[in-house]
Amino acid sequence: MTLEDLLAREAIRDTMAQYTTAGDRLKVDDYADCFTEDGVMEAEHEQADRRFRYEGREAIRAWQARWLERTLAGEKVHDASFARHHLSTSKIDLTGPDSARARTYWVAWTDIGPDHAGYYLDTFRKVGGDWLIAHRLVREDWRSPDSLFGTAVSKSRS
């Protein structure tokens, strides 16, 4: 492994941390800036109301802006008073000088403790000096029967 490889992996981890903290804090621009201009954010789920796909940074920004606008207007997007996504094991494979893939486990905590958990399957692309998410597939492995986050996807649609 070269120093350049280590720096790329650390830059990718930094993008993952920015994504997570920006999402939990509803920092719309910081969140959207984690994606390439043509980036894709999607979730597969057996229940239709939990599936989504947003193509392009502006569509991802608009999705997050709806969460923020509805929250500021006093609407309940979900029943949690907070959400904190914690990342754990992350396997990053550099696939070229400007491309990488990663598989990262996550768990979301809310007022009840562990609320739901799964993993991200990511494709990263280096744009300028930044490693950005070109495609993120969110897979949920587990959800508490008492989840406070269950309505988040359906209530954030346009």
UniProtKB/TrEMBL annotation:
Q: Which SUPFAM superfamilies match?
A: NTF2-like
Superkingdom in the source lineage: Bacteria
SnoaL-like domain boundaries = 5-136
Write down the Pfam families for this protein, in alphabetical order: SnoaL_4
Do you know which InterPro entries this protein is assigned to?
Answer: NTF2-like_dom_sf, SnoaL-like
Protein name per UniProt: Nuclear transport factor 2 family protein
**Organism the protein comes from:** Novosphingobium anseongense
